[in-house]
Amino acid sequence: MSTAAIMSVEGLVKTFHTGFLGALPAVGGLAARLQLKGVAQRVEAVRGVTFRVERGEVFGLVGPNGAGKTTTIKALMGLIRPTAGTGTLLGHPLGHTRSRERLGYLPEQPYFYEYLNPREFLDFYGGLFPMTARERRARAEQLIDRVGLRHAVDRPIRRFSKGMVQRIGIAQALINDPELIVLDEPMSGLDPIGRKEVRDLVLELKAQGKTVFFSSHILQDVEQLCDRVAIVVKGKVRAEGRLGELLLDADHPVEIVSTHVGSAARETVTALCDRVMDAGETVRFHLRSVSDRDAAVQALVTSGARLQSVTPQRRSLEDLFVEEAGRA
Ligand SMILES: Nc1ncnc2c1ncn2[C@@H]1O[C@H](COP(=O)(O)OP(=O)(O)O)[C@@H](O)[C@H]1O
Ligand SMILES: [Mg+2]
Questions:
Q1: Domains and CATH numbers, the chain
Q2: 189 C-alpha to center of ligand 1: Å?
Q3: Interval 193-220 mean pLDDT
Q4: For a substitution probing ligand 1, which of 14, 15, 43 has the most ligand atoms within 8 Å of its CB?
């Protein structure tokens, strides 16, 4: 198996010039210099983003609204031209049409032909790939079952719930049996059941050896699904890596649970804690720092206390997120 990334970007920058005349760089620049507000504006949507996605992983692009996730994805998909930076997609440079053959993509706000039913809709998208009519139909039927829309197979998309629209969108992204599936905010606007359905689909795809890349601002979904993440804030990657590693500080708190804690040991260990909780016989000590772990354990054990567990306390993705957003 190749060790080359299935998708990568390096130093991606995208600056939009907007407003009246803003699209004409010369005139827009002049207007900006003259500070003609509302005439021309520069939006630095992406300000130097670098990451690589390995084959077979679920990768999350995480960040608050307006962080530059959709812009990054559009550049990866070859839909917009980067201001600067390079990248590869399925072994081709960004924007190369050949890479689309093995790519599935669900845009953030997909526009669907809403008078079509799922069968007609998938048949239409299948027609964009080199498949026979028979293959196309078989694939559409298979996907309709896969995304749980069999009951709505004759219903036009305009009568779908938001969750159903998202599911037909994912089916569309899978019509060509892609190696890499890119989903922009696939869980947004879904209720908990809808989100679980999308999560299960992502895990199923991973089990089949596919690579899934998705953006999200819903941290719980990211935490449950992703092997690795990149956290984007204000157009820059603030952290990238395995979630477990990102969430475990070098110096992290530890929880010690014990029974039979005598008063002397309790006093010693409490001095190292920011919180101590009692539940009947059981005492839960929250040590401030892992560096006090051995001393605390020793104080308890030598006093005759019975240890139940010693557990490192992971930060939540939310903690990390808020921290990185604050630092930005
Ligand atoms: N076509 C565009 N023209 C001007 N500004 C844009 C355009 N697309 C996105 N932006 C701006 O770029 C920033 C990043 O947007 P986006 O990539 O959609 O963020 P996210 O997907 O993380 O919410 C936002 O400030 C947004 O308003
Ligand atoms: Mg977006």
A1: 53-247 (3.40.50.300), 254-312 (3.30.70)
A2: 19
A3: 91
A4: 43
